[in-house]
Amino acid sequence: MDSKYQVNISAHAAEDLRNIYNYISSIFLADKTAANIISDIRDMIYSLEIMPQRFSYSLNPMLENQGYRRALVKKYVILYLIDEGSKVVNIARIFHGSMDYGRYI
Q1: pTM of this structure
Q2: How far apart are the first and last CA of the chain?
Q3: pLDDT of 61-83, one tens digit each?
């Protein structure tokens, strides 16, 4: 079995999580739903400690060329890079799937 990767969450991705929670809880008045979605996203993020290569590269050609991969959780896209040399997964951003997220990287 491959050794575990370290997962680092960027400041932008941490802010994205806060914004997702705030949006769902304030617009839809659904704190429990917001907490569940954030929990699901965090579970996916930390699952990347093992076999982060299991997800495909980004569908955005510019991001794919830069090595970004994407993991999907409900309607959200987690964009991340893998540093194979240091066994680190860097979580770059988390976006709603309907966004043109290539503009924000």
Answers
A1: 0.92
A2: 33
A3: 999 999 999 999 999 999 999 99
Domains defined for the chain, CATH in brackets: 6-104 (3.30.2310.20)
Residue 60 burial (10 A CB sphere; 0-12, 13-18, 19+): middle
Stretch (H or E) spanning 31: helix 31-47
Which tokens in the block code for residue 74?
A: 């409900």
**Which two three-digit tokens encode residue 47?**
């699952």
Residue 34 structure tokens: 């917001």
pLDDT confidence of 2, banded at 50, 70, 90?
Answer: low
**Strand boundaries in 32-87, DSSP class E:** 69-73, 76-83
